[in-house]
Amino acid sequence: MTTDVIPLPVLRAEILLRNAEALAENKERTDKDNKTLANQLAEARNQLKMAELLGYGNKKAFKPMYEQIDQIEEKTADGKSGKSWFDKIKQQLSDLM
Q1: For residues 64 and 31, what is the distance between their CA atoms, to the nearest angstrom?
Q2: Angstrom distance (rounded) from CA 49 to CA 62
Q3: Are the C-beta atoms of 22 and 76 separated by less than 8 Å?
Q4: What is the CB neighbour count within 10 angstroms for residue 70?
Q5: Is the pLDDT of residue 4 over 80?
Q6: What is the SS3 assignment for 61?
Q7: Element (H or E) spanning 25, and its range?
Q8: Residue 48 confidence (pLDDT)
Q9: What's the pLDDT tens digit per position in 56-97?
Q10: Which residues, 6 or more positions from 17, have their beta carbon under 8 angstroms from its beta carbon?
Q11: pTM of the model
Q12: Are 89 and 67 in contact (CB under 8 A)?
């Protein structure tokens, strides 16, 4: 029997990014939604840093994910919305595990 193990920080980052993606795609975000989105992206970054510190990949694997979060933060600034902004980071997370 094979059991897949997913590190909790990576799982938390995936969930936070999934929630942030739903908000980022909403063209009618409120100020509260914008704050929630920013907080979710910041916490996703923190969870990825924790995963990196715990050794669930090397620094080279995490750097592009941090860059993706930076880009998403820029794209969502001032209430801007769009689709497919999270595709690359979701693939990077998938490749990590």
Answers
A1: 28
A2: 8
A3: no
A4: 12
A5: no
A6: helix
A7: none
A8: 97
A9: 888 899 999 999 999 999 999 888 998 999 999 999 998 887
A10: 40, 41, 44, 86, 89, 90, 93
A11: 0.90
A12: no
The upper half-sphere exposure of residue 46, i.e. CA atoms within 13 Å in the direction of its Cβ, equals 7
H/E stretch holding 1 reads none
pLDDT digits (tens, 9 = 90+) for 23-47: 999 999 999 999 999 999 999 999 9
**Is the CA virtual torsion 1, 94, 62, 38 positive or negative?**
negative
Q: With 80 as the cut, is the pLDDT of residue 2 above it?
A: no
Token pair recorded at residue 71 = 């880009």
Burial class (CB in 10 A: 0-12, 13-18, 19+), 33: middle
Which residue do the tokens 């938390």 mark? 12
